[in-house]
Amino acid sequence: MPVLINDFKSGWQNTVQHEDMNTDALFMCKDSNIDELGALTCRKLHKKNIYFTTQSLESEIENFYQIDVEGIGKYLIFYTVGSSLYCWNSATNGTRTLSSAMTGGHVSYAPLKPVLSSKTFVFITDGTTMLADDGTTTKTWGIDAPSGSVSATAQGSGGSLSAGDYSYVFTFYDGETGSESDPSAACATFTAAADDSVVINNIQTSIDSRVTARRLYRTIADGGTRYLLTTIADNTTTTFTDTLADTMLVTQITEDQGIPPSGDVVVGRGNRLFMVDPNYPNRVRYCRASRPDNWPSTYYVEVETSDDEVVNLCNLDGMLYFIGRAGVYRLYGESPDAFQAVGTRSHVGTDCRWSVAVGPDGIYFARSDNGVYRFDGVKSVLVSESIRRTFGLITETWVDIVDQGSISSVSRGQFLYGVYYLIVPMKASDGVVTNRLILYDSTRPGGAQTWLLCKSTCNDIFADKGRGKIYGCMVDLSDEDYYNVYELFSVDSNANDTAVPEFVTKAFTIVEPKRYTVQPEGFSPVGTVSIGWINSYRIDAVGSWDLDFYVDDRSVYSGSHSGLTSADRHEWHDLSTKLKGHYVYVHGTGTGTPGPSTHKIKEIEIR
Hints:
Elements: E1 3-6, E2 26-30, E3 32-36, E4 39-42, E5 47-48, E6 61-68, E7 75-81, E8 84-89, E9 94-99, E10 108-112, E11 121-125, E12 130-133, E13 138-140, E14 151-158, E15 164-166, E16 168-174, E17 179-180, E18 190-192, E19 196-201, E20 213-219, E21 226-232, E22 240-242, E23 266-269, E24 272-276, E25 283-286, E26 300-302, E27 310-316, E28 319-324, E29 328-332, E30 340-343, E31 357-359, E32 362-367, E33 371-375, E34 380-382, E35 401-402, H1 407-410, E36 412-416, E37 419-427, E38 433-441, E39 452-454, E40 458-464, E41 469-475, E42 483-487, E43 502-505, E44 508-509, E45 515-519, E46 522-527, E47 532-551, E48 554-564, E49 573-581, E50 583-590, E51 600-606
Antiparallel strand pairs: 1-51, 2-43, 3-4, 4-51, 5-42, 6-7, 7-8, 8-9, 10-11, 11-12, 12-13, 14-19, 15-18, 16-17, 16-20, 19-22, 20-21, 23-24, 24-25, 25-26, 27-28, 28-29, 29-30, 31-32, 32-33, 33-34, 35-37, 36-37, 37-38, 38-39, 40-41, 41-42, 43-50, 44-50, 45-46, 47-48, 47-49, 47-50, 47-51
């Protein structure tokens, strides 16, 4: 009874027993696709990103991010090399250095349009450096308050002040974004007579390049609340004469403007930015509406107790979720007065904070101890059951395991067109740890059977959803001292990249054909036995492949085939000897220079 292995479509299943797998599944699959009419095809090769081909970067490229900004066809590409943050501008075809003091390792980006600006700013943080960039200029995030105070002297005439006591404060102001510092200390209170004017001196200038103006505020007669007096539209003038009547003051000062926290994850929702507070990891802070530099000290949402650490933030179906180590929480309310964190039914969180990614059916994240989960807005479900050996503790010849010691810091997750791309550090049987790319297609029926491990040594990943591209940052194989950014799985090949397709089929039971005896009534089957014989095989494939045959987990035969075409599919090859056993499976490795059109397998038959 022949064994027919074909119609590959279920990917890398990796269950406990080969024989328990679906008929068309693969036990292991590397550097291969299963999307061409059931054929197992060598994966498409990488295409080097044109923005980096002229640069020799001896440190890793990381934190790659692309965004469209104001201007026809204008987009920005951000990335880090070592401690430097760069921005490539499509309009100028030039690269700017935004900062040379990035120290947090992982950079977070969040676009938001400030209320007074016509430009989309990309707000950037890595835990230490906070920047705002509009594609042309870069500004440090947050404006420090003035260190001094003004002096005020009543002139006795020339104004419209009422009789009473007054005081003044001033702030630093960014006229382009509307960002404003906290106010200075108040000047000494003084008494004015009716119709006095006041000369204000010592209005401090700022060394911050983003400060384009200063704002003066004063009380009304015998009052305590301060109102906007004037905006001095420069950063040079140090004096001002106040003649306004109290009735002309209408705009009340905003207290507690606040400097943004130094968290390492920032996300936008609506017209606000949200960030985990590094000093209180169970708190998520947020800015005033449409004012990304304005973070009042009381603007935060607290999750449970101080032990409930929030590690990442993301939006799903119009809701903002806080992904914690021990569970998932949802932001409830539409205004600061109503904001609160509400627990969900997910009592599973993640220690792999950068593995978090939003897909069409939920939020995905990895755990170092037992696999990948999907949060659907209510609860979290383990979806990596089919590759549970990958998250085990013992390596095998064909199945590497996740290195639990480094996955929490190394893992990176992205979604594109329903596919979850996850970088994880994999430890081989020789103890060597290498970053690998795991793919999960959430759009296919029985998605838990479509895991695919690709042999890409990525250290970072980014999905450009607008253009349908997935980029990976990795070493240039032509020179291991240089790193580059590649478009993963591009139809265009690159000489620096060579795929190494490899697969292991499920185990198929070897069964003797039924035997019959002649009886008066006709033929009657004797039955089958649980052990059988095999002696030959054929292969319908393209390219060069090495095949290893295993019977009852023992390697029994190896065969090499070079330059196969469809014309060879009917040729039978003898095994070394007639073999007997319970089950058989096949290990295949592409040889030569595999590519998507040069290496594929459609069918293997054993008899």
